[in-house]
Specification:
Oligomer: heterodimer
Helix content of chain A: 10-25%
Structural class of chain B: mainly beta
Distance between the termini of chain B: 32 Å
Structural class of chain A: mainly beta
Largest interface: A-B, 24 and 14 residues
Helix content of chain B: under 10%
Chain lengths: 257, 14
């Protein structure tokens, strides 16, 4: 038996919104410790990795590990039937999980709706992501990162990210001209959500597709801060941390010139 | 122009 009840149902809506543009089908791997998902986009350029800890649910019950193969478009359609303030419960029979039951309860518990989503067998490639000591780790307001991606898309489909001790610089060069945004580290003790920090082992300069980066910024409503981890000749890690877990995106860099 | 890399060349499949 699998059962996971999330008091903040809106969080599930936001999570789904931050995954569904990148992948259409995905396995939700459920275990005693929580729910996780790893999926690559069709072109194998980007990967999303989601982890939700069991303690974030009340109650959480999973007797044995199993996978829920979900079409995210279908799940999204059903999730639209949930109110933003609803408590959402996911239920499945782990021995023969051919459907996922979704229960939406409003705060006064007067309205309860129940939906069954048909599950599918998804044969998904799983990548092993090594623990990496990144050359540069940058924490910044997630809304700022979203704005930079949106703004620079006006200029080009690619962005070069340069990180030094004193600044992180985003540069775009296109047919109409060029643009760049530089951010310096700031620490605002009373407003930690607005701070920018740079931890640097060595300077980094990497080029990425803005289309994918802006796709990742769909995670913005999940966290005030976003973490960017970069190393030369390594995929970029973009992480949004939540109370209940995290969503991580990996993006392969552009190579050569 | 630079070409888009793929994750397969950085991470191994399990």
């Amino acid at each position: 038996m699998f059962e996971a009840r999330l008091t903040q149902g809106a969080l599930l809506k936001r999570l789904l919104d931050s995954v569904k543009e990148l992948v259409t089908d995905a396995n939700f791997d459920c275990s005693e410790t929580g729910i996780s998902l790893q999926a690559m986009d069709n072109s194998h350029v980007a990967l999303v990795s989601l982890s939700l800890r069991a303690e974030g649910f009340n109650p959480y019950r999973c007797d044995r590990g199993f996978s829920l193969g979900v079409n995210l478009n279908s799940l999204n359609k059903i999730m639209k039937c949930a109110g933003n303030e609803d408590v959402i419960t996911l239920k499945a029979d782990d021995s023969s999980a051919d459907s996922l039951c979704l229960l939406f309860e409003n705060s006064s518990n007067e309205r309860v709706s129940e939906y069954e989503l048909k599950l599918m067998d998804i044969d998904q490639e799983h990548l092993s992501i090594p623990e990496t000591d990144y050359d540069a780790t940058v924490m910044m307001p997630s809304a700022e990162f979203q704005r930079i991606c949106r703004d620079l898309m006006v200029v080009s489909e690619s962005v070069t990210i340069d990180v030094s001790k004193d600044e992180i610089k985003f540069t775009a060069e296109g047919e109409l001209g060029t643009g760049n945004v530089k951010l310096k580290p700031t620490s605002t003790i009373d407003k930690p959500e607005e701070s920018i920090t740079i931890e640097l082992g060595q300077t980094v300069s990497l080029q990425f597709s803005l289309k994918y980066l802006s796709n990742f910024t769909r995670g913005t409503p999940l966290s005030d801060q976003v973490m960017l981890c970069l190393s030369d000749n390594m995929p970029l890690l973009v992480e949004y941390k939540m109370d209940i877990g995290y969503i991580r995106y990996y993006l392969a860099p552009k190579v050569g010139d | 122009a630079a070409t888009q890399g793929r994750l397969d060349s950085f991470f191994t499949q399990v």
